[in-house]
Amino acid sequence: MEKKDSIKERIKEANAKAVAAMFAAQPVWVDMAKAGDVIPGMKKNTLLHAGPPQEYKHMCGPQRGAAWGCLIFEGYAKDAEEAHRMLEAGEFEFAPAHDHDAVAGAAQVVSYSQPVIIVENQTNQKRYYSHVKEDTFVALRYGSHGEHTIKKLRWLAEVVSPAFSKLLRKMGGINCKDIIAKSLFMGDEGHNRNQAETCLFLQAIMPAALESDLSREEIRELAWLLQHDENFFLYQVMTSCKAMLDAGKEVEYSSIVTTMARNGTEFGIKVSGLGDRWFTAPAPKVKGLYFPGFTEEDACPDLGDSCITETAGLGGFAMAASPAIVHFGTATGVGGSVSDAINYTKEMYEITEAENPSYQIAYLDFRGCPTGIDIIKVLDTGIQPIINTSISPKKPGRSQAGAGLVRAPMECFKKAFEAFVDRYQIAYPHLASNPGPLPGAGRASFWGSGKRRKGE
Amino acid sequence: MEKKDSIKERIKEANAKAVAAMFAAQPVWVDMAKAGDVIPGMKKNTLLHAGPPQEYKHMCGPQRGAAWGCLIFEGYAKDAEEAHRMLEAGEFEFAPAHDHDAVAGAAQVVSYSQPVIIVENQTNQKRYYSHVKEDTFVALRYGSHGEHTIKKLRWLAEVVSPAFSKLLRKMGGINCKDIIAKSLFMGDEGHNRNQAETCLFLQAIMPAALESDLSREEIRELAWLLQHDENFFLYQVMTSCKAMLDAGKEVEYSSIVTTMARNGTEFGIKVSGLGDRWFTAPAPKVKGLYFPGFTEEDACPDLGDSCITETAGLGGFAMAASPAIVHFGTATGVGGSVSDAINYTKEMYEITEAENPSYQIAYLDFRGCPTGIDIIKVLDTGIQPIINTSISPKKPGRSQAGAGLVRAPMECFKKAFEAFVDRYQIAYPHLASNPGPLPGAGRASFWGSGKRRKGE
């Protein structure tokens, strides 16, 4: 066993290294392509879902609905019932999108022929993937799988994706970091408000599109898409966050969280110094604002990879940049008061390693977004990461139910910490004899600072 | 002489009426045309300038430079010297843009053949006018009159204006109130940050442009303009503010300010209950951030009609919506701290009649922008309206010098108040015997509330 001071120093250095690599990332949206052509390890029968690993038999309603939609879209099944039988028969392999360098929003399931965004971290040339935002409310990512949804997916695959691909290749890509940074001065927090990002992207591409060999009709389709979905840019942001966080993964001794994700039944995290292992707990319910026709009863538990934004210091962590988000305009309002929004950001500085020099919050005197969730700080303070998120319906075939706020479950951090002390053979007396109590739950913190947990 | 309570009641009612008419305005950008074809009373030798009335011989440098540019652009003069001789000879008639239902930004002078924006208040069908933003730094509105500027003006007249005209007519206009309202949740304050407005406008028009009979080249020119001047929409905002404020003008007994404007030597205001009369004082110097090569020595005193935005509750009055404005990014940063910016807005509630239900500030719990400057409240509190503004160079032919903050001179409000008590025969004992001291400068306010002036 190592001495505590020495291990503390090692963890400190490792965390600084992990976060420095994250901050050095330059995520650029470089292309779009068919998922099966670009996502590593993707086979014709692969279905990528949000969150930690999930089997079809335990899958929440909207994720099932999305999987049915995939089989219909791919031409394997003619309807939901047939798709359900094929999935029950085990003819398809489910895997977390995260384990294939990808992200999937809400209940989205990504199949072989779906068009995907490709974001490259130009600092290390690694590429990351996501489906594209297909509609505002009625969409595969909320479990819709009707004719409207399948038709929209085809339009994205056949019209939108080739057009964006041509344009992005011509332009040499669009730097998402620049767009996100600017949008934080324009009321976006990157998870539920992406309005400035969507506009800024449109502004960035239009002259080049008109100078390219894209047809007028193709450009019109893109302009229409970027007008009708004001939060279109969300998945480019999520993929950029994935690229950024991945740059800080697998740093020995680092206690920084590199992934938070939910599959509608479980919430899972990964930690830099613990590789690709998931640490899970039951997915919590989201407190939020509901669209007409929906109540909390109709809501699926917390779901989707979109909290990759919070993991990267955006979303709920950046709500002080986005006071308007508390109101319910279109799909973006998450409820609460403006002072709550500001306090969430302030609170997140308590559990994070650093402040992002590129992503600043003007209202907090240009302080950088709180970034790099440290599992030790989470356990020491008792502060759970805040997430603002859309709410999926419980039943497949319905549209978005609402939007709201949720905390990452403490259980994930506790499990990760237990694995961390075990992996690095850290002397932590409480854990050996009694794995029950949380570090910091006693009189003093893990590091002996005497800092009390929240609520004590 | 009327009794004080009765007059107080009358003024209260009149102010509520004036502001209600302002709030009911629906400014819509409906068209572009040649100034001479649409601005009322515009003759071939008319030159419209910013601020209160001005003669050529007293004109500040940049306004002279802009007037020279007008004569070159119109083909009357081959260069600045010839233009100067013609202007000295009195061959042209100067008039305030404001007195022709128009606004002119900074040192801009509007001549017969210039293209102008047309904004209609669709509540009363009245139309208002402004030149279009021609460039970011080197522009007629800062006194530039070289080949670059003349060429840019021609491009605006021959390419941009006809294209926007066709598009706006096809679309039935673009509602500026909606764009401004939305932009206040996106970090704009409408005077020095118009980035969200510019993007939102682009987003609103692009599909329609691509469906119109505009040529691909015409659309490309518009997209290029809206990409290269991120604050393009400023003059649409100013004209919208003019349309809004004009709806509240000439209300008997109203002490609400309907115009604030500066010509580089004088600052002038108009008051609803006092008709079209200007009340002026020397234009103050602006405290601000300077571009490389410029110092406070190089700056012209406060100049331009752009503070119509503050008169309408935007700009300096809405800075709490726009914390990023204190930084010097491109031409928008005005200096100071974020808390200053927020406090300016809070302070302006002290001197205004109402809070705009359409223009809200999310950060202040969605409070409406402070709107309807009341000259009596200005004098009672000693609080001068805050303005954030670009800084013009003192010498003609240079580019924008910087941006900063300035207060409207108290002298204007004092003169207006003297005229107000005279016009409405209000018993105000101090004034009769001693016009020197300001109302409220003594022990009690004009209304006897005992409220102290600032700094007492």
CATH-level-2 architecture of the largest domain in chain A: Alpha-Beta Complex
**Average predicted confidence as pLDDT of chain A:** 92
Derived structural class of chain A: alpha+beta
Task: Estimate the helix proportion of chain A, in percent.
Answer: 25-40%
Could you name the CATH homologous superfamily of the largest domain in chain A? Enterococcus faecalis V583 domain
| CA(first)-CA(last) distance of chain A | 31 Å
For the largest interface, the chains and their residue counts are:
A-B, 36 and 37 residues
Structure characterization notes:
Two copies of one chain form a homodimer. Chain A has 456 residues and is of the alpha+beta class. Chain A folds into two domains: 4-20 and 250-433, v583 domain like (v583 fold, Alpha-Beta Complex), CATH 3.90.1700; 30-238, Alpha-Beta Complex (Enterococcus faecalis V583 fold). Chain A has helices at 4-24, 35-38, 61-74, 80-88, 147-171, 176-183, 195-211, 216-228, 234-246, 308-311, 338-348, 375-381, 410-423, 429-433, and strands spanning 27-34, 46-49, 93-96, 102-103, 109-110, 115-121, 126-131, 174-175, 257-263, 266-271, 279-282, 287-290, 303-304, 352-361, 367-373, 386-391, 402-407. In chain A, the strands form five sheets. A five-stranded mixed beta sheet of chain A has the order 4-7-6-1-8. A four-stranded antiparallel beta sheet of chain A has the order 11-10-9-13. A three-stranded mixed beta sheet of chain A has the order 3-2-5. Chain A is globular. Chains A and B meet through helix 7 and helix 8 of A and helix 7 and helix 8 of B.
